[in-house]
Amino acid sequence: MKTKIIQITSGRGPVECCWVVAQVLKHIIEDLKKSGITYTILHREEGTENRTLQSATIQLHGKALESFLKNWLGTVQWIGKSSFRKFQKRKNWFIGIYEVKTSSQPTILNENGIKFQAIRRSGPGGQHVNKVSSAVRATHIDTGLQVLVSESRSQHQNKKIALQRLQEKIAAHDNQKLKTTLQSQWENHLNLKRGNPVKIFKGSDFRIKKTTKNYKSKRQKLKNELRTQKWD
Asked: What number of other Cβ atoms are within 10 A of residue 16's Cβ?
């Protein structure tokens, strides 16, 4: 199972482009479900109008991600009339979809990388509360993150709870690191190319524009060339 991160962005485009980002996000999610690829929306940058997004960042998990992304990465074009500006004559709008390159990997938690310390429980509970070291402090050595658990009188149970809470804390730490990485990749918003779109949508209902190839005219052209060809 592979993991990739993509970003859908309006670049510096106007509100119409932000609307296109929101529509494309819906289409990508539908396509992901059909392809059996799981996804997590990591971040949404809201647009200035309702139902618009400046950008959206998605983490994908699954097989054959390369073939899936081949149909989406690049420039996406929408041909349609603006519903936000009545007198706007422009009808071609462009957004970009990029793969986010990041070296950060999810932290794998195992007990060898955790320092456990048994300490005495504190607080109400009678004479025996401070006599038994049943509370547990768990510290993740690499990140320095730690939790203290003292809910149970059983040290074993507190250790089990500590592992679970430390995993949650590390996951939140990883997500924050990833968000920092995404924020540093704003060049995606600036380098939007408006040529050779990978997908074209049309109209207010955002239909995919089907391109039909006229093979008949090509065959006729080839026949004419053969007739006029002079052979030695």
From this structure: 24
- Host domain of residue 94: 2-101+186-212
Amino acid at 225: E
The residues, any chain, with a CB within 8 Å of residue 46's CB and separated by 6 or more, are: 52, 53, 54
- Sign of the four-CA dihedral 80, 84, 89, 94: negative
Looking at the whole model, is its pTM more than 0.70?
A: no
Q: CA triplet 28, 32, 35: central angle to 5 degrees?
A: 135
Ordered per-residue pLDDT tens for the chain, 232 residues: 788 989 999 988 999 999 999 999 999 999 999 999 999 998 888 999 999 999 999 999 998 899 999 999 999 999 999 999 999 999 999 999 998 876 656 677 788 889 999 987 655 555 544 556 789 999 999 889 999 999 888 989 999 999 999 988 988 887 777 766 666 665 555 566 777 899 999 998 898 876 544 556 566 666 666 666 554 4
* Domain total in the chain: 2
Q: C-alpha angle 52/97/80, rounded to 5°?
A: 50
Burial of 68 (0-12, 13-18, 19+ CB in 10 A): buried
- In this structure, are 173 and 191 located in the same domain? no
The two tokens of residue 129 are 């509360």
Check if the beta carbon of residue 130 is closer than 8 Å to that of residue 121: yes
d(CA 45, CA 9): 9
